[in-house]
Every structure is written in structure tokens, then in C-alpha cells.
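Morning F.,

Quick status update on the modeling queue. The single chain you submitted on Monday has been processed. Sequence for confirmation:
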Amino acid sequence: MDSRIPELVWGISSAWRANASFALALVDLVRPDVIVDLGVDRGFSTFVFGVGGIGKVYGVDWFKGDAHAGHRDTYDLVMEIKEVLKLENVEIIKGDFVEVVKDWKSEIDILHIDGRHDYEDVLGNYELWSGFVKEDGVILLHDTNVFPGVKMFFAECSLPKFNFLLDNGLGVVCRSKGRLEEVCSLCSPETVGR
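C-alpha cells below.
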């Protein structure tokens, strides 16, 4: 457990826990102005991105759940946790990814795609949002080891990339091969597959 992450966040049930220390190191490396977390659920990844206080973190979710996350409304829980943590750099946006992107204007340094995990959904989210990612930005795809749709999309992605082999998997994609190598250097070699 990384001591920079409050106990309250560690207490959130999440399949993303194995990625927490990497996410903090990634934020320290990239020094992002904007992070977009597509798929908040209970907020674990959103809050981890925000605890360092670097840049603005936008957590986007419709808070209706789905077949992969479970059909539950977690909005009130996420807002309560955000208030307790006093994370002024975290903004929760309640809305569908397709609708929210229509009004999006900001360039993105780190984009985390963790919504519905069917191939068409992952591809659609990538196509809608990746155009806002800076040339040296980083795109993360959660559940590359467990959901066939995410796994297939990640395998087909032709940009420089690597995959965390831990737990559910976290794919890392960059347009810049140099940036990808910097990001990969944050990881232990035994935890990474190419």
C-alpha cells in the first residue's frame, strides 16, 4: 500500500488496486494538466489519480452501472468520498461518455478507459476520446487480461504499447515511443509484457 493514498481510498473495493503505485508514479512522471478517467464506478482510480494534487482529474461516468461493473448507482458514494478527501483537483462528471465528449475542449495528458468492456465499447471510447490526448500523452486500458473485448482491442492497437501482467491487466499506449519507454521504466520487468 502506497502511503500517499488515504486509507479511505484503499477501503474502496476495486479491481484496480494493483495499479495504484504505478498510477502515482505515472502522474509524477507526466506532471499532467488534465487526466480523464472514463469509468469511475466507486472512484478508486479517479481518487488515486487525484491524491497527488497534480493537474485536474475528470472522472466521467453515467453512474448506472453495467453488466461488467454491476447495475448500481454509485454517484452519491463517490461524491461523499470526494468531499471527505477534500480533493479540489477532482471533478466528477455524471454523464454518458458519448455525450460528454461532444462538449470536451481540453487536451488530455492521461486518458484511462475503463467503461463497458465489450470490444465495440472500448473501440468507440478510444475513437471518441484519443484525439484529445497530447502527442506525448498516455492512454491506459483496464482489464486487458480478463475481458476479451479489451484484450482484442489492445492486441489490434498499432501504437507503441505494453501491458501489465498483474491482476486484471492494464494496457499502456502512447503515440510517442520515447514516452512509452519512460513510462515502461516505472515498472518491474517481470510485470510487463509487450
